[in-house]
């Protein structure tokens, strides 16, 4: 699955890598990437969408990730594993981009706090330098109240699953009233000021997290949300918020983890994060630090 580490990022002057992570990769905001870096990323995503899957017949690797997300959604939303499972999930996706499709960078993120006052016109939706935008409002409804995306690099995507059902369809969106306030710097700062992990993850999931599904609609407003490639940049931003929250009190928060677990228990660092066959399962404790165990990346502290 993985054929080597990505290019090393410059060492951080404020974060000390742990154990074998001596050159942590540096995840960057989408609009800071060069044109070539954006093309390299988009080409790799399209490569996964052409590569036969490993879990389901007549599906691609892109479909496999959506299928897995749907399978474990009940255990990863409204539960303590919201952050830990998605951190593992998007890191596995990053490794597939690198190992299967020759991607040379790290997973970018979409900082929607830069766009909160006009989210539909964010550069992320550019058809030339982004992920394509809204749809023709006169075209037929497909899934999730959305319609086929007709421009940008993913307008050709043929997706196999929607929710739990095999339902071949186009990549679909249907912009509605974006909840821009939930993406504002003020709301994000309020979330980052949470005193404990459970308060933090619930405030994030019910606030900034909902910016994408409630605003973009279509595929991303479902448990097969990874159908829309924007999902990964959205969740990298959410992972970045967890990283920033942890770094405010790293001695405590790199081990702080509480809340509900599936089915009816209390969260534990020994809880298993299932990848349903896409990668080996790991414990929560193995993803608490982005510069420890199998993880080796960081974000800017500002």
Write the layout of secondary structure elements.
Elements lengths: L24 E2 L8 H14 L12 H16 L4 H21 L45 E2 L9 E5 L2 E6 L1 E2 L11 H8 L4 H9 L5 H6 L13 H19 L1 H4 L6 E2 L3 E2 L5 E2 L8 E2 L13 E2 L4
Parallel strand pairs: 1-10
Antiparallel strand pairs: 2-5, 3-4, 6-7, 8-9
Helix pairs in contact: 1-3, 2-3, 3-7
Protein name: Tyrosinase
GO molecular function: metal ion binding; oxidoreductase activity
Keywords: Copper, Metal-binding
Q: Helical percent range?
A: 25-40%
Rg result: 18 Å
Structural class: alpha+beta
Strands of the biggest beta sheet: in what spatial order? 1-10
Total strand count, please?
10
* CATH class label: Mainly Alpha
CATH superfamily: Di-copper center containing domain from catechol oxidase
Tell me the CATH topology.
Answer: di-copper center containing domain from catechol oxidase
- Determine the strand fraction and express it as a percent band: 5-15%
Query: In total, how many domains does the architecture comprise?
Result: 1
Distance between the termini: 32 Å
Q: Tell me about the largest β-sheet.
A: 2 strands, parallel
State the shape: globular
CATH architecture annotation: Orthogonal Bundle
Order of H and E elements: EHHHEEEEHHHHHEEEEE
Tell me, rounded to a whole number, the average pLDDT: 91
Unreliable spans are: 1-18
Q: Count of helices? A: 8
Structure characterization notes:
There is one protein chain. The two termini are 32 Å apart. Helix 1 crosses helix 3, helix 2 runs antiparallel to helix 3 and helix 3 packs across helix 7. This protein has helices at 35-48, 61-76, 81-101, 185-192, 197-205, 211-216, 230-248, 250-253; strands at 25-26, 147-148, 158-162, 165-170, 172-173, 260-261, 265-266, 272-273, 282-283, 297-298. The longest helix is centred in the N-terminal third of the chain and has 21 residues, at 81-101. It contains eight helices and ten strands. Strand 6 and strand 7 form a beta hairpin. The strands form five sheets. The chain has a two-stranded parallel sheet. It is of the alpha+beta class. The model is unreliable at 1-18 (pLDDT under 50). The protein has a single domain (25-298), classed as Orthogonal Bundle (di-copper center containing domain from catechol oxidase). The radius of gyration is 18 Å and the shape is globular. Helix content is 32%, strand content 9%.
